[in-house]
Structure formats: C-alpha cells, structure tokens
Amino acid sequence: QVQLVESGGGLVQAGGSLRLSCAASGRTFSMYVMGWFRQAPGKEREFVAAISRSGGSISYTNSVKGRFTISRDNAKNTVYLQMNSLKPEDTAVYYCAADYSPYPSTQTMGPRTQPDYWGQGTQVTVSS
Fold it and tell me: What's the whole-number mean pLDDT along residues 37-43?
C-alpha cells in the first residue's frame, strides 16, 4: 500500500510560480513511476507530467511544456512539480499518482494510464 500526500497548492497571480510536493509512504517509492494529473471544474481529469523510477525519462502534456518541471527524490520519497509562468487555465485540483513498474528507466504513465494510487489532491488557483 502506498499513501500519497500532496502539498504546496494555493492562490497565485498569472505569471507566478508554485511548487507542488507529493510525499509517499512506504519503502518502495523507487519502484513506482510517479506523475501529476489535474482536474479543472467541469472537466475530466487530465495528465500533466510523469517521471520514471530512475528520473531519467520524463513526459509532459503539451500545454505545460517549457513551464512545468517534474522531479523526484527517491531518498526522500517525494516527487515535485515546479510550475512557472502560471496561467488562469492552469487552475485545477492537482493530483499525485503512483504506478508500479518493473522498468527503472521507462516512463510508463500517460493520459490513458490508470495509476495504482492517488493522492487526495491540492488546489491550485491562478488569478488573471
């Protein structure tokens, strides 16, 4: 069992930055591909970014490329999402996700993935 707890959300003006963190319980954090999804009001949950177990393979949805950076610290059981140049359309609840993978260097999470575990979400609101 893996428990995920997000933090770092809040209210920020357009153009600002936030850093989300997701702390995972358990000793097997390094066995999971980690990712971030988001859900805006009235919309379906969408994939944002994911990172392989080793950190060497990363993918982003097109709308956040060049603005968001995902990273992980396996020693701290934590994954991060640095969000810069935020836009009002980035407003959403951001969810951390974990998906077990036997492949240390392959990023296997994407828009159609059904991750094994989810966090409770953290609200990000970007004002114009």
Answer: 96
What is the distance between the terminal CA atoms of the chain, rounded to a whole angstrom? 40
- What letter would DSSP give residue 37? E
77 secondary structure, DSSP code: T
d(CA 72, CA 86): 21
Reduced DSSP (H G I as helix, E B as strand, rest coil) percent helix, strand, coil of the chain, to 5 = 5, 50, 45
Closest to 60 measured CA to CA, from 29, 82, 89, 42: 82
Nearest by Cα to 22 from 100, 76, 89: 76
Q: What is the pLDDT of residues 54-105, one digit of tens each?
A: 999 999 999 999 999 999 999 999 999 999 999 999 999 999 999 999 999 9
